[in-house]
Amino acid sequence: MREVAALAGVSIKTVSRVVRGEAGVSAELAARVSDAAAMLDYRHNLAASTLRGHGQKTAAIGLVLMDVANPYASALHRAVEDIAHGRGTLVFAVSSDEDPDRQREVLDALLSRRVDGLIVMPVGTDHAMLLHEQSRGTPIVFVDRRPALDIDSVTVDNREGACRAVEHLAAQGHRRIAYLGDLHTIWTAAERYAGYVEGLARAGVTLNPALVCADLHSPAAAAAATTALITGPNRPTAIFSAQNLVTLGVLAALQTHDLHNHIALVGFDDLPLAELLHPALTVIAQDPTTIGRTAADVLFTRLDGDVAPPRHVVISTRLLPRGSGEIAPDNGLTSG
Fold it and tell me: Does the keyword Transcription apply (predicted)?
């Protein structure tokens, strides 16, 4: 703060007021302070009071997820928290809402609190802020998604899991297998769509673009897309739903039209109470607990001084056949 004050030609008190957002500083002085802070790569340390007791560490890490309310994200969060608790470390968990601007805001808020490291479910394609922070010595682990960067990451084999789902449906005799997925810009969604295409090819089924519905980012959007598919001509006999919230929308539409016992369904990601549905939901199950624990282990290994090259850890998925994915084709539903 003294360096910022000297460069800006103001008092330390003025710098303090600006970085804290307090009133009483002219626009011209505030701009000088902001410019000086940017030149010096200064970020206000909200956790300074904890530094003296933790050897220059805050005993806190940041966890940036797409939505902490999502069942998958919340299970991952709990796993990270359990590992961190054993290390006497607090976890600050925040949601990015798949919004790059919001991700930058929450990352800046976490880094302003001098978190010791970050576990991030990355959004978008611009990760310059994270690369810069890593170059400053902050350990970072990407989780769930793997941008092409030299940063540690933990993911599942999304492509192979999706391929297995399609092959499973094809093995039941299905040839009209629809795909419903999240935003195509999300790495996991792109990988799962690639797996869908590969699964069709392995099964000798021709890809039909009319059965592909992408960019469904809510249960409501998925329900609308499913309704359009199942009420139109040549409806699918099976559906691969590539994300858990998308699966909720698919289930709602199938039940509304009383087709849940006639159109097969395999979802990617499990759902709470999935076994209690009728029929019970067949899924490609991830293990968010293992993913979260692995990501936390990698992060704390870095915090302990590991300087090995960045690693990519891949966690396997499992096919859980429960009933919905084993429904045979009802060819009376199609007109061609």
Answer: yes
Quick one: tokens of 74?
């919340």
329 CB-contact burial (10 Å; exposed 0-12 / middle 13-18 / buried 19+)? buried
- 139-170: per-residue pLDDT in tens? 999 999 887 678 999 999 999 999 999 999 99
What does the alpha-carbon distance between residue 152 and residue 298 come to, in Å, rounded to a whole number?
A: 8
Query: Could you read off the pLDDT of 191-249 as tens digits, one per residue?
Result: 999 999 999 999 999 999 999 999 998 999 999 999 999 999 889 999 999 999 999 99
Residue 8, C-beta contacts closer than 8 angstroms, at least 6 positions apart: 14, 15, 29, 32, 33, 35, 36
Q: Which residues partner with 240 through β-bridges?
A: 179, 266
Mean pLDDT (the chain, rounded): 91
Length of the chain: 336
How many structural domains is the chain composed of?
3
Q: How many CB atoms lie within 10 A of CB 194?
A: 14
Q: Is residue 19 a contact partner of residue 44, using CB atoms and an 8 Å limit? A: yes
Domain span at 267: 158-282
The verdict on 170 and 141 lying in the same domain is no
**Phi and psi (nearest 5°) for 241?**
-100, 120
Rounded to whole angstroms, the Cα distance separating 15 from 30 reads 8
Residue 20 lies in a domain: yes
Backbone angles phi, psi at 254, to 5 degrees: -65, -40
- List, in order, residues 6 or more apart from 109 with CB less than 8 Å away: 94
Cis peptide before 279 (omega within 30 of 0): yes
Report the b/e string of 113-127 with b at 16+ CB within 10 A: bbbbbbbbbbbeeeb
- Kindly report the CATH number assigned to the domain that includes residue 255: 3.40.50.2300
Cβ proximity of 292 and 80 under 8 Å: yes
